[in-house]
């Protein structure tokens, strides 16, 4: 498969047909189950909450997924096609069922999407449906919506869903991948008793829930014998709820929890602690420093570049994270399809050039606080950055300054109360440059407060990329958009994100892919 994003003009999406191959259900191996550490979920209904990604990805099957090479593969979908990138037809594979035996139909998808998009429901994934016609009517600025259904959805029989977007979007297929929880189907039970369903969802994926979720404990899911996709490698998964990843890390070292996400504070020691049972994969995310561009002192691009050139990312990465991160050289992570690296000249370490630019910009006097949320294990990172800026630029007033907690940090960011650089992170839910560039550098983006930056030229390049006729054209325009952003340098890229997991020696096949951890591929060996 090519790494290119399927775009438009007879968008037949030459996707690999991944569903239907391999042993399924009862004919698969009867391996025992394993345990995985997760955070306590806010909701288990896909699209309703924001903290149950791991659970949703085994209880539900997506329409398509991204393979390790960056190509798209069909799962529940048989095809996703468009002639103009605005009007899409999704054909479903027949014969798929929910865990209660109810058929999965085009109406199931329409029901799920409509409930997510309906503003008064206040579901977390609501904004993922914003490019479908009728979304605005379900989310009026004032008053209650006069309808509960997206006008851009049309169900044609049991297996055909027609989707009309508000504008051409060549990246729409990528938006149907696993981490976009707003695009899953829902059975009738989700409508008739939504609260009971939220505690024990009925999905269309490889595992089904045995018992309802127990708060602060978790639950166990077991292999769904009638699943039409490739059979999962184990018979069951126990999700163990943790409020503290440090505790989960200790439990994994003791052999009490089989699979964990490694907390940031343990990146430096994880290799020594777990050896070849440590697993990493480049994530579609970016760690960066935001700058308060609303403060006139930060209006000079030379000052912004000087701050970036004063940071030795390689030293920080090796010292704090054991080399598990990758210093950023662009705004879009290489795990996003078609993304180029090496676009950011000011992301290199060049203290002499940093001093020259700072002098040209008029220097800096007074305090330079670097603000970050306390309690998240970020102290050492921002202390290191502050020390490097102090050492390489001679700014004595630089200081790493934590807030008491995330709410205080969020209040300062959204209230524009900051007077220096501040922590920022963007994680794309689908591996497209569109997600990152639109999310951070447009006024409608979910992380506009992370950049305080927009530009008409960037908006135009993104609009043209969205409506591109070929993958190559889309990629060139998205990369062109980020080059235009980098010319103004509104943020300081630091690192591309990395998924880091560890396991006990009881399991094998731990695979971290484009959608994060592939739990259905893990098997029990001990």
Automatic annotation (TrEMBL):
| Alphabetical keyword list | Signal
Q: Does the record carry Signal as a key word? A: yes
Q: Ranges for the Solute-binding protein family domain?
A: 77-444
**Top-rank taxon:** Bacteria
Q: Name one GO cellular component term.
A: periplasmic space
Pfam family of this protein, just one?
SBP_bac_5
Q: Which residues form the signal peptide?
A: 1-19
Q: Which GO terms describe its molecular function?
A: peptide transmembrane transporter activity
Name of the molecule in the record? ABC transporter substrate-binding protein
């Amino acid at each position: 498969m090519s790494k290119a994003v399927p775009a438009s003009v007879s968008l037949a999406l030459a996707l690999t047909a991944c569903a239907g191959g391999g042993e399924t259900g009862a004919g698969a191996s009867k391996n025992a189950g394993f345990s995985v550490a997760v955070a306590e979920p806010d909701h288990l209904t896909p699209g309703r909450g924001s903290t149950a990604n791991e659970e949703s990805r085994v209880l539900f099957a997506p329409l398509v997924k991204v393979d390790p090479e960056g190509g798209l593969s069909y799962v529940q979908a048989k095809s996703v096609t468009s002639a103009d990138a605005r009007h899409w037809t999704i054909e479903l594979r027949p014969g798929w069922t929910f865990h209660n035996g109810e058929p999965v139909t085009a109406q199931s998808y329409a029901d799920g999407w409509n409930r997510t998009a309906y503003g008064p429901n206040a579901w977390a994934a609501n904004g993922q449906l914003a490019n479908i016609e009728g979304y605005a009517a379900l989310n009026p600025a004032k008053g209650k919506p006069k309808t509960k259904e997206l006008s851009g959805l049309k169900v044609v029989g049991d297996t055909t869903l027609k989707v009309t977007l508000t504008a051409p979007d060549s990246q729409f297929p990528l938006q149907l991948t696993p981490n976009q929880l707003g695009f899953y189907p829902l059975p009738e039970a989700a409508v008739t008793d939504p609260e009971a369903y939220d505690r024990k969802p009925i999905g269309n994926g490889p595992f089904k829930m045995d018992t309802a979720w127990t708060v602060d404990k978790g639950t166990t899911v077991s292999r769904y014998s009638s699943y039409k996709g490739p059979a999962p490698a184990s018979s069951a998964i126990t999700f163990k709820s943790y409020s503290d990843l440090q505790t989960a890390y200790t439990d994994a070292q003791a052999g009490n929890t089989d699979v964990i996400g490694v907390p940031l504070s343990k990146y430096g020691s994880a290799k020594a602690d777990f050896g070849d049972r440590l697993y990493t994969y480049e994530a579609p995310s970016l760690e960066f420093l935001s700058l308060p561009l609303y403060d006139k002192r930060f209006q000079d691009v030379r000052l912004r570049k000087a701050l970036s050139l004063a940071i030795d990312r390689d030293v920080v990465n090796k010292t704090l994270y054991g080399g598990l991160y990758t210093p950023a050289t662009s705004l879009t992570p290489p795990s996003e399809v078609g993304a180029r690296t090496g676009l950011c000249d000011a992301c290199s370490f060049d203290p002499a050039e940093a001093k020259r630019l700072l002098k040209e910009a008029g220097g800096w006097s007074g305090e330079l606080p670097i603000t970050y949320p306390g309690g998240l294990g970020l102290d050492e990172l921002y202390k290191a950055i502050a020390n490097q800026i102090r050492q390489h630029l001679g700014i004595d007033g630089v200081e790493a300054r934590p807030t008491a907690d995330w709410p205080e940090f969020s209040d300062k960011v959204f209230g524009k109360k900051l007077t220096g650089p501040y922590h920022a992170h963007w994680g794309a839910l689908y591996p497209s440059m569109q997600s990152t560039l639109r999310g951070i550098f447009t006024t409608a983006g979910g992380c506009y407060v992370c950049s305080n930056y927009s530009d008409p030229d960037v908006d135009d390049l993104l609009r043209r990329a969205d409506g591109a006729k070929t993958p190559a054209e889309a990629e060139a325009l998205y990369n062109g958009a980020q080059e235009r952003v980098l010319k103004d340098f509104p943020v300081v890229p630091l690192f591309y994100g990395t998924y880091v997991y560890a396991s006990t020696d009881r399991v094998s096949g731990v695979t971290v892919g484009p959608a994060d951890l592939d739990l259905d591929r893990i098997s029990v060996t001990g």
